[in-house]
Amino acid sequence: MTDQTPDLPEPFDEVEYRRRQRSRANLMAVLLIGLALLFFFITIAKMTILK
Q1: Which end of the chain is more exposed for a tag (fewer CB within 10 A), N or C?
Q2: How far apart are CA 50 and CA 43, in angstroms?
Q3: Who wins on pLDDT, 35 or 4?
């Protein structure tokens, strides 16, 4: 009978977790700012067309 140790999960790397979390937060901020700018420019374009 062979003695096999079960595969242990990798230790939790909090530094890597925080880095990924910060990266996702930055991406969401960029997307939200881009969406706000898009709405702003669409609104300005509509106002100038309707004048």
Answers
A1: N
A2: 11
A3: 35
Q: Say whether 13 sits in a helix, a strand or coil.
A: coil
3-class secondary structure, 4: coil
Give pLDDT, residue 10.
Answer: 81
Terminal CA-CA length for the chain: 86
Buried b (16+ CB within 10 A) or exposed e, 11-50: eeeeeeeeeeeeeeeeeeeeeeeeeeeeeeeeeeeeeeee
Which are the contacts of 34, defined by CB distance < 8 A and separation ≥ 6?
none
Instruction: Name the band, by pLDDT with cuts 50, 70 and 90, for residue 1.
Output: low
